[in-house]
Design a protein that fits this description.
- The chain is of the alpha/beta class and 116 residues long.
- Helix content is 36%, strand content 18%.
- It contains five helices and five strands, in the order αββαβαβαβα.
Length: 116
């Protein structure tokens, strides 16, 4: 699924990373625990979270996460946006809760699992 489709499904707003709109996303992970993200995220994934601190970008960078979706209407700080730009990571916001956002992506065909 392309990032642009994910944004549409989530009624999201792209904050940065327009160059990644046609990136193919293979799986998703929804979590506010970065330790869980480290265990479960695969390459070419998207991370859905309510956290807006710099550790989210650092974790995404380590795991080759292409985009971060901030749920519950969270807005990134200018510092977070700058870090995402420097690491070629898109940031999207949505008003949906983490549970609802993950569910919407799942029913539209984006799995939490990825065939290796």
């Amino acid at each position: 699924m392309k990032l642009r489709q994910i944004i549409e499904i989530l009624d999201g707003q792209l904050i940065c990373g327009s160059q990644l709109l046609d990136t193919e996303i293979k799986s998703a992970c929804g979590s506010d625990l970065m330790s869980d993200v480290l265990l479960f995220v695969k390459k070419n994934s998207i991370l859905l979270t309510g956290l807006t601190h710099p550790q989210v970008i650092r974790t995404a960078e380590m795991l080759d996460v292409k985009a971060i979706v901030l749920v519950r209407g969270k807005r990134p700080s200018p510092m977070l946006i700058q870090m995402a730009r420097e690491n070629n990571i898109a940031i999207v916001t949505t008003d949906y809760t983490l549970y609802t956002a993950c569910g919407k992506l799942y029913v539209n065909g984006l799995s939490g699992e990825m065939d290796e």
